[in-house]
Amino acid sequence: MGILGLFKREPSRHTVLAAGQVVPDTARCVQCGICTFNCPVGIDVRAHAWRGEAVKHSTCLTCGECVSRCPRGVLRFERTDLFRKGEE
Amino acid sequence: MRYVVIGTGVAGMSAVEAIRSMDGENEIVMAGDDPHGYYSRPGLAYYLSGELHDKALYPRTDADYNRLNFHFVKAQVKSIHKESHTLEFDDRNPLSYDRLLLAVGAQAMPLKVPGATLDGVLKLDHLEDARRILKAAHRGRAAVVIGGGITALELVEGLLAHGMKVRYLLRGDRYWSNVLDTQESRIVEARLQEESVTLHHHAEITEVLGKSGHVHAVRLPDGQILKCDLLAYAIGIQPRLELAKGAGLALDRGILVNEYLQTSVDDIYAAGDVAQVYDPMTGRSVMDSLWHPARQQGYVAGLNMAGKRTVYSKAAPLNVTRLAGLTTTIIGTVGGGRDDDLVGIARGDSETWRELPDAAIAQSGFEVNRVRVMVGENTLTGAVIMGDQKLSLPLEKMILGKVDISPIRERLLAPGSRIGDVITEFWTSRNSKN
Taking Cα atoms as reference points, which of B328, B384, B393 lies closest to residue B357? Predict the structure, then answer.
């Protein structure tokens, strides 16, 4: 991927950063802790997954580390309702 | 009033949470012989592969435990005296109980060939087993893995991650043949070979050969000898039934429980890998060996122990695992015996379903993609999703939610059907309506 490709990726990344939150699917989670282990700001993502709660943490960067490292596809980004209307 | 939970796995932990949610007063004791208490057993695979530090395997902090307000007794229960409601231990005073939960789980089937007790013959049940494997795994040395299913591959991957040369012996002609179809097995095997694993089909070991008490080689039925420094096996699990047997509980393959998770004996419940649970929907008693059902069973057992009558209703089984580095979701009924009410369809790849909206994206970026869907009369009853996981969540919701698929049934079963496209279109339009 050249530099053009990088630019192409930016808009979708921006969307996630601005209006996304990490949401777990508890039925898939085995509490291995890879998400918590890799969170750069120290959020206990695993505890959210146990409780089935979205990561609504003021320090969450929505960087995607937990989403991409989870070996079981427990975590995904979901757009928050707050921004949905303005975007669509 | 005292509740006792035997077992420190997820079923036990979940039961403690349920009891505490109903009863803030009475004493709860958790007893178990695993010195490490509650940790993520499935996470051991990632500890082996080096993706996790062992300290990260513990989901709970001391503060969490204080909040739940229970005692942990690190000891092996020797026997249950049901008449006197008492537990006997090896090296401590007996403990009385009013309500008891057996959540002792399952353990690896032992390897029964000559030489199986030599040093360097290893299994993967507990954290201590994982530590033993890591200690024995040396770069450049030879390992043999036998067995099937997820654990065998976790062993293969873990040993590869530590630079071992791995031979994987399969008894039959392909990997995990009662769950995966032929093509799926071949995908996994091809990826293992790419990772330099040597596969041996129709192979089993008849003897483990040692030198000074340590494994040195294995012998195959045709007399062939494969040298190795380590032998790891995962040939299945068996529920830990000794306590239940001693107490005279009704048993079949596991401890038989009704839909309230009660055993045949008053005040004794069972949940998790050790329990064989009655399913009112099918009238059958079935065993699961999955994390999430164990958690749910533990919770329902806990509620019932604390006096809240609650029925356990079994959902379609779901598991997500990595097979040779390929994320694979298995939902519902996908393999095993033939079911004449089902038509299995399987196709290779498609385009549009990789463009599902952000909300449905679980994972992406794999080179191999395959989706197999089991189509029932009006619903989907199972699916295997390998690689790209974008269809995984929609299929999970459709199968677990028993969504009526009659509008797309014919299209799904049409020759040359693009399953992914059909499902994506159906799911997207259904959600935009709701």
Answer: B393
CATH 1.10.760.10 fits A18-87, yes or no: no
The contacts of residue B274 (CB under 8 Å, 6+ apart) are B7, B102, B103, B104, B105, B106, B239, B240, B241, B244, B254, B255
Is there a shared CATH topology between the B121-235 domain and the B318-433 domain? no
Does the beta-carbon distance from B318 to A30 stay under 8 Å?
Answer: no
Q: What pTM was estimated for this model as a whole?
A: 0.87
Who among B53, B329, B359 is closest to A73 (CB)? B329
What ipTM describes this predicted complex? 0.86
Q: Which residues of B touch A15 (CB under 8 A)?
A: 358
Q: What is the pLDDT of residues B319-372, one digit of tens each?
A: 888 899 899 998 887 765 433 333 333 222 222 222 333 322 233 334 567 888
> What are the tens digits of pLDDT across the range A22-63?
999 999 999 999 999 999 999 999 999 999 999 998 899 889
> Looking at domain B318-433, which CATH architecture does it have?
2-Layer Sandwich (3.30)
Task: Please judge whether A34 and B327 are an interchain contact, meaning their C-beta atoms are less than 8 angstroms apart.
Answer: no
Tokens describing residue B153: 């591959």
Query: Chain A partners of B326 at a C-beta cutoff of 8 Å?
Result: none
